[in-house]
């Protein structure tokens, strides 16, 4: 074995993710050469282009996601905090979702990028157990709250569609605040477990050196609970709830069509509003599933490979080398899925704008107010001017009398939105 290591053309330093500054002295070097054979080092060099792309995504693209996400989540929070929108339960959930998403962007992604690119910042965390422990708990809590807030939104919308008369009037900002408080208290013990179990931080996609406290090698069993709580259980509730929700919407539409067969011009404004809100939440949950499902699959496969199929250098060294190669590759694929999942915490604002016309109008009004803060500001006049521009375009295209076009659009836009109209 020693002759093979001496003949290896690849030094241990090629494994730059190991943080070898303090480990290259004997006997550590001999032990590391035994744990990371020459074949594995050569395989690491073969993955150079893949690793370079992944590191680009988890540095520069992550910074872009952080900046865009902080701005858009803050704008969404401001719009949803304005009266009378803030009186609805969904507004409370979406505001909490915006805050938790910002927390993930700051405490997980921003700190992760800093720790991976700055030795001084990472040393600060490693030398202060209380700081590192607080960081772990905050990452876990923001992740869990953001995930389960989407579940809560989906379940509430299902209940509203299923029992509109019984639950519609009971779901308000106060009831939503109580649900958020109970959910936070329930998830807090799960977040505090990060003080004892390091989880994926031991092998972070950002490749920073993990804090050396707790029991980082005894996290195997709890990782099953962690992956279930952050991926498969939320996905199960969201997918199942959306299936029931779509089935109930279809049943309601058929029933309404049968009951109004003789008066098809009749439109239930409450039903239209409910369907618009449901459409927004379906878009949010569908995007969440698309972004999270690949990460859940890869994390589960990696956990099974590392824990259940774990191999050791002896007695079958060739089998150990093959196992280690696949472990390295699985971690890189987890990194790519994690880079994709990061967009989940930055795009909700775009989904609101895409599915909600009145939300776009509210954003336009707020931006106009910010840009012309020194001038007199009137919400109705801003929307009227926008309506006038649209009307003039219609006149040019269809030669429609301007009085007819303007009268309808301006009256509809000057009304104060109801709590659920904005979404």
> Helix content range of the residues, please?
over 70%
Radius of gyration: 27 Å
**Distance between the terminal alpha carbons, to the nearest Å?**
66 Å
pLDDT averaged residue by residue = 80
Query: Which structural class do you get from the secondary structure elements?
Result: mainly alpha
Strand content: under 5%
Total beta strand runs: 0
- Name the shape in a single word: elongated
Q: Supply the number of helical segments.
A: 16
Q: How would a crystallographer describe the biggest sheet?
A: none
Low-pLDDT ranges: 402-414
Order of helices and strands: HHHHHHHHHHHHHHHH
Question: How would you portray this structure in words?
Answer:
The protein has 423 residues and is mainly α. 74% of the residues lie in helices and 0% in strands. The chain has helices at residues 2-7, 28-35, 38-46, 48-81, 89-117, 119-126, 129-162, 164-167, 173-192, 220-259, 269-308, 317-341, 348-355, 357-371, 379-398, 402-414. Helix 13 (348-355) crosses helix 14. The longest helix is centred in the middle third of the chain and has 40 residues, at 220-259. The N and C termini lie far apart (66 Å).
């Amino acid at each position: 074995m020693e002759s093979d290591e001496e003949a290896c053309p690849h030094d241990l330093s090629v494994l730059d993710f190991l943080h070898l500054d303090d480990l290259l002295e004997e006997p550590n070097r001999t032990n590391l050469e035994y744990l990371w054979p020459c074949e594995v080092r050569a395989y690491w060099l073969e993955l150079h282009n893949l690793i370079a792309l992944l590191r680009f995504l988890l540095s520069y693209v992550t910074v872009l996601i952080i900046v865009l996400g902080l701005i858009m989540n803050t704008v969404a929070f401001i719009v949803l905090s304005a009266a009378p929108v803030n009186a609805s339960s969904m507004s409370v959930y979406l505001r909490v979702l915006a805050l938790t998403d910002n927390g993930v962007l700051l405490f997980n992604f921003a700190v992760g990028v800093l720790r991976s690119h700055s030795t001084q910042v990472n040393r600060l965390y490693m030398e202060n157990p209380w700081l590192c422990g607080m960081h772990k708990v905050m990452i876990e809590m923001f992740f869990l709250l953001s995930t389960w807030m989407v579940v809560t939104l989906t379940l509430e919308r299902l209940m509203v569609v299923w029992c509109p008369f019984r639950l519609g009037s009971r779901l308000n900002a106060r009831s939503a605040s109580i649900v958020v408080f109970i959910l936070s208290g329930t998830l807090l013990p799960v977040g505090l477990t990060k003080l004892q179990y390091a989880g994926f931080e031991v092998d972070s996609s950002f490749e920073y050196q993990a804090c050396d406290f707790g029991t980082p090698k005894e996290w195997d069993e709890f990782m099953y609970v962690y992956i279930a709580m952050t991926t498969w259980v939320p996905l199960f509730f969201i997918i199942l709830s959306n299936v029931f929700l779509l089935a109930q919407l279809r049943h309601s539409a058929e029933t309404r069509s049968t009951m109004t067969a003789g008066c098809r011009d009749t439109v239930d404004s409450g039903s239209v509003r409910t369907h618009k809100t449901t459409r927004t939440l379906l878009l949010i949950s569908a995007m969440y599933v698309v972004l999270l499902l690949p990460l859940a699959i890869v994390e589960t496969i990696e956990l099974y490979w590392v824990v259940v199929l774990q191999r050791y250098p002896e007695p079958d060294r060739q089998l150990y080398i093959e196992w280690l190669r696949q472990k390295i590759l699985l971690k890189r694929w987890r990194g790519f899925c994690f880079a994709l999942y990061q967009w989940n915490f930055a795009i909700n604002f775009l989904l609101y704008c895409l599915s909600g016309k009145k939300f776009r109008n509210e954003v336009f009004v707020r931006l106009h107010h910010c840009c012309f803060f020194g001038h007199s500001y009137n919400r109705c006049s801003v929307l009227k001017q926008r309506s006038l521009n649209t009307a003039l375009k219609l006149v040019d295209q269809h030669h429609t009398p301007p009085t007819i076009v303007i009268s309808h659009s301006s009256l509809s836009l000057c009304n104060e939105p109801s709590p659920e109209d904005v979404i």
